[in-house]
Amino acid sequence: MAAGGTLAHEFIPPPPGEILGHPKPLWMLFCAEFWERFCYYGMRALLAVYVAATFFGHLPEGEANAQASLTYGGYTALVYATAILGGYVADNYLGYQRSIILGGALIALGMFMLLIPQLQWFLAGLAVIVAGNGLFKPNISTMVGALYAPQDSRRDSGFTIFYMGINAGAFVAPIVCASVVGARFGYRYGFLAAGVGMVSGIVVFQFLAGMLGHIGKAPAGREGVKPVLVVLGGAAAMVPLLWLLLSKSEVLGYVLIGLMLFLVLYFLASGIRSGDRVQLQRYGAMLLLFLANCLFWALFEQAGSSLNFLARDFVDAPFHFTLFQSANPLFILLLAPLFALLWPALERGGRNPSIPRKFAIALIGAGSGFLLLALAIGATPDGAKVSWLFLVLTYLVHTMAELCLSPIGLSMVTKLAARHEVGMAMGGWFLSTAMANYLAGLIAAVASGGGGHGAASSLVQYAATFTQLWWLALAIGGSCFLCAPLINRLMHGVK
User: Model pTM?
Assistant: First the structure.
């Protein structure tokens, strides 16, 4: 039973009222997510370069970059890995609304802890942020899906609008937190600005929560303070474990592999247990797309690590290197409305690519961005720096690839999962992204670590790594394209 005595699989309409053709709560969630993403991307723009300079500055530059990339990859992986736990907690104990409030408070606390310039405290702050993100991130996305009936044609465009909120926050954050506050007062004060952003998000959500009505309320029998205290205690108990995983990158890898195996077994068992052959096959399709998602984000998430180091050390730009972190969200804001119009237009003409083929296009697009950058590095004279225009073009290509996958993927999860397991499925989506971020850290450690023999050798290492990423993306993306008809059959009409 869901809140208000409604069966969990039944659609609960939001309170009446629309803005620009969409339910009013969508715009409230848009604002709350704006501030949470401001917090995340403001901190993300600084994380790798701050860690390299502050905690590994005594090492050779290439090794410092590699160690910082592993820390970055571990943190971003755990941010997404804990989403599967947060989805389960929201589905079964807190409801989505209380999960978001509690998660946001923990994120803000962790951000303020990053102000302490001591490695162990810094890792503890990251651990608290990770615990908070697990409660926040999957559940606000799930609530967007809950605003629309299963066959509502506005669902995909609603997720695209929500995605614009994400990227509006991501665009502003590097400018404010990194290029203004961080560059002027010290990078750790950029973390303070990011924390203030998260507090703003909590205030917006709490103040406007009434717009949601019964959507996201606590499950029946889970009302009251006790479930909140239990979950808060569980989050506190997780912090030492998260700290350990942040300190031991190799251990984290094994944990993520274990969680991925659990995810596969959970959804296959759930499909078998339901006795619904269609649902079982839909879960199979969903898991295959999770694998494609994992590879895409392993490529895309070079932005905050290897591409950030590349911009700092080897790109000739007339502005602070952290401003490159705003390129992707700026392109999202410019292009997302066009893509939101593109898919319905292609659908009317019978030329809209299926979800698996959109994933394939995204993979090949991500690889193409790295190929472009590798060619630019190869054409750069010895001792010279790469033109900033090539890095901007890479971000543009990556953005177009992202728009073929990310908002489509979020919507896909809410369609393929059984209604009572949407939160868990959304957590699974973010778990595949977690694995991707861990792999991204390993890739970045190779790319940005260089050979330890000077600038020329480092640029050669970047070019070699980026070329390998192109061939990998082409192989996997091509396979996904060819297998699309099979995956479509498993999806049983979900588009």
Answer: 0.83
Q: What are phi and psi of 37, to 5 degrees?
A: -70, -30
What is the tens place of the pLDDT at every residue in 443-489?
999 888 755 545 555 888 899 999 999 999 999 999 989 988 888 88
In a domain, 242, yes or no: yes
For the domain that residue 429 is a member of, what is the CATH number? 1.20.1250.20
**Nearest CA to 53 among 122, 149, 140?**
122
Is residue 5 situated within a structural domain?
Answer: no
20-to-78, 157, 243, 332, 335 alpha-carbon distances in Å? 36, 12, 44, 20, 19
On the question of pLDDT at 264 being above 80, the answer is yes
User: What residues does 315 pair with on adjacent strands?
Assistant: 386
Q: What are phi and psi of 23, to 5 degrees?
A: -55, 140
Residue 276's domain comprises: 17-491
Number of domains in the chain: 1
Q: What's the pLDDT tens digit per position in 215-238? A: 767 666 667 778 778 888 888 898
Phi-psi sector, 319: left (phi>0), alpha (psi -120 to 50), beta? beta
